[in-house]
Amino acid sequence: MPVPAEAGSEGTTVKQRSIPEASVARLAVYLRMLGELAEQGAETVSSDELAAATGVNPAKLRKDLSYIGSYGIRGVGYEISSLLHQLERALGLNHRQAVALVGVGNLGHALAGYGGFGGRGFPVTALFDVDPDLVGIHINGILVDHIRAIPEVCAERAITIGVIATPAQAAQGACDLLVESGVRCILNFAPVVLQVPGEVEVRKVDLAVELQILAFHVARRHLTATADVVTEQMVNGHAVNGSGGAHS
Amino acid sequence: MPVPAEAGSEGTTVKQRSIPEASVARLAVYLRMLGELAEQGAETVSSDELAAATGVNPAKLRKDLSYIGSYGIRGVGYEISSLLHQLERALGLNHRQAVALVGVGNLGHALAGYGGFGGRGFPVTALFDVDPDLVGIHINGILVDHIRAIPEVCAERAITIGVIATPAQAAQGACDLLVESGVRCILNFAPVVLQVPGEVEVRKVDLAVELQILAFHVARRHLTATADVVTEQMVNGHAVNGSGGAHS
DNA sequence: AGTCGCTTGTGAAGACACGCACAAAGTTGC
DNA sequence: GCAACTTTGTGCGTGTCTTCACAAGCGACT
User: Fold this and answer.
1) pLDDT digit string (tens) for B124-173?
2) Nucleotide closest in space to B76 (CA vs C1')
3) A98-207: which CATH number, 3.30.70.3300, 3.40.50.720, 3.40.50.10330, 1.20.1050.10?
4) How far apart are the first and last CA of chain B?
5) Contact B227/A11, CB-based, under 8 Å?
6) Can you give the residue ranges of every domain in chain A?
7) A146's torsion region: left (phi>0), alpha (psi -120 to 50) or beta?
């Protein structure tokens, strides 16, 4: 949301192929699904198939893909390996991004061991905490440092992404240290709004909020179900036809 | 829109269905911040203050709040305790929602101990896994059951929300069991698109995707910053006809 | 060759979200 | 009681996202 306030040297604006934010999120999903399909030995996939597998409208999928170029073959579909490569390039995954994780408590510990990060090109290479009982131990072979070592360690290990999994009151301090160390992208699990300079990108994941959104829907459903006859619902599309069977 | 303020308890076609999805997500954020303010002893808060604290545009905040009614006092702001109560009601938090967590591995274990759930009205009251080493142990005082016990335990403990933190290949099976047990809201951490009947609401949280979105931004930033990257892959024809161009 | 069926890519329209700007409604001070 | 000030609630213009619908392109088949 924050446009670089005074980014200054912008120079010649070479066709800002600005991919919509919503599309970027879905491209990442397509990427993973393509990876799975490739592992299963498939060679091509149509937009309808890929859309069904990722739960997206086919037209939306094609438009998403069109933002990164025209790599489909009409009448056939998309060549999986080619599309995979193009997607990785567009998402900036051609070179690894080292991740630092601050806060090795309950959630942080799990994230440190979470295979989904390292397995997808985001190796967690630094861990930090303030708890003396945690500083010094190894998790998944990585030493936990004190947060005061953030600047030094981040520079040394070329950290580009920071993940904050501290308690709420410690998050801003951790964030400041990361920013000071040159980290420009932060994934924040703490339930606070981080104050950062304009050039730093923050994404927030709030688990409690996710549950509350669900609770809202369950309450609303209960309300309409009890108040009236169950009407034909028009909730989010999800034309899940043939949703039966095929379990396990 | 002069809706009679006192006549809320009638139950006749409460038009809550009109709350935009995006607003619901923010309402949950306001709710938490209001809780913090209440703890600090504040009694009223203005839209500007609350907006600044939650990182939202003040007008947007007021519009969000207007969807649940007019509970502000012009010239003063919002009475925190009152607004808190109204928000909880609107989000369906007036009665607790018992949560079942399937998959007590790395992430699931952390979620089971995550204070943000129970602390906000979503007590995790059931845990499930398939691993014989995990079934039978207690986490935070809760016994881990085998997933085959899901129907029985969910009915017994009045589970309304299910959280899936299993590996990808086990997620659909876990989902089916939950749905079969009457769970209508599912929070899914597994990187798969769950197939569910239309009346079930699924929210997906994909941690790897979050990082990839960040990686995209870091890559693009790097691209624009170093404006003269040797673009070897300009091969794509880019028939981007009339793409608006630089409307500065 | 020629035709037919299938799939992509995209213009256009509709739906949704955002944020400005201002009237309405309250409070404070005299 | 009245005027000045503060803050809410919202109508509306603007921009973004989603979805439809269809022409263009590709391969297969006759």
Assistant:
1) 999 999 999 999 999 999 999 999 999 999 999 999 999 999 999 999 99
2) D7
3) 3.40.50.720
4) 39
5) yes
6) 21-90, 98-207
7) beta
Where does A21-90 sit in CATH, by number? 1.10.10.10
Residue nearest to nucleotide D8 (CA to C1'): B74
In this structure, which topology does domain B14-90 adopt according to CATH?
A: Arc Repressor Mutant, subunit A (1.10.10)
Residue type, B161: I
Task: State the pLDDT at residue A225.
Answer: 63
CA dist., res. B200 & res. A218, Å (int): 9
CB contact under 8 A, B207 and A116: yes
Subunit contact A211:B117, Cβ cutoff 8 A: yes
Residue with tokens 């769950």: B194
Q: Which of A116, A186, A193 sits opposite B54 (nearest CB)?
A: A193
Q: What 8-state DSSP symbol labels residue B17?
A: G
- The reply to whether residue A92 touches residue B220, judged by beta carbons under 8 angstroms, is yes
Q: How far is CA B208 from CA A6, A121, A163, A175, B141, in A?
A: 31, 9, 12, 20, 30
Question: How many Å from the CA of B34 to C1' of D5?
Answer: 26
Distance A60 CA to C14 C1' (A): 15
List the single residue in B with minimal CA-CA distance to A217. B201
* Mean pLDDT score across all residues of chain A: 85
Cross-chain CB nearest to B218 (options A184, A206, A233): A184
Query: For A145-196, how does the pLDDT look when each residue is reduced to its tens digit (9 = 90+)?
Result: 999 999 999 999 999 999 999 999 999 999 999 999 999 999 999 999 999 9
